[in-house]
Amino acid sequence: MIRALKTAATGMLAQQLNVDNIANNLANINTTGFKRSKVEFQDLFYQTNRAPASVPRQGTETPTSLEIGYGTMPVASPRIFSQGELLPTGNPLDLAINGDGFFRVLLADGTYAYTRDGAFKLSGDGRLVTTDGELIDPEISVPEGTTSIMIGRDGTVAVTIGNETEPQEVGRIEIVRFMNPAGLKAIGRNLYVETPAAGDPIPGTAGSEGNGEIYQGYLETSNVEIVEEMVNMIVAQRAYEINSKAIKTADDMLAIVNNLAR
Q: What is the total count of domains within the chain?
């Protein structure tokens, strides 16, 4: 009976973490480039009272086992990198990736991070930066006197300066892919950093070799589906309730045993 209490408790803890994850997804419904995550579970170890194919009597063999499990545990919360909707903004510095890949940015400590958030800005010296001021890599500098900025689907950046009619190319924005993007580590601020699980970064030209295309004047919205998350929350709540019911049932049975001893 004590085992039932502990087993049901693992189910309650697991569903509590599940609801925490769903709440984070819903909280980021309006976060540019956000990718939802889901919690995955595994069953815990088992106590085997009788193994399958055991021989209780001579000439017989049990076709099944007698095993009692010890509950569940969360083991992973992979991100789902499905495409979010592209929302037109009209801002020439807003960029969205339609397809696979990330923008690469240079952090203050000299390391690289990766993002799907293309809400870029110009710094005081004309360089393309994120909302928090990190430089995009490769670095893109816009000359003084620029009157228009044009960014192609392949990431080519061209500007028109002053009264000139012919645009000048000033650089190209690369797309970086990973063999296993779910292995990236989220560090907040819409940024991910590479890990051995994600594989080595694969830089390339947008729109080629499996890389997504860059859309100027658009932002990618979160891929969180409100209805799906609400359904998941209801399911998690019911699972939490039924595990609490199992604890109450086990407690009632213990109370009956306790009363027998009086």
A: 2
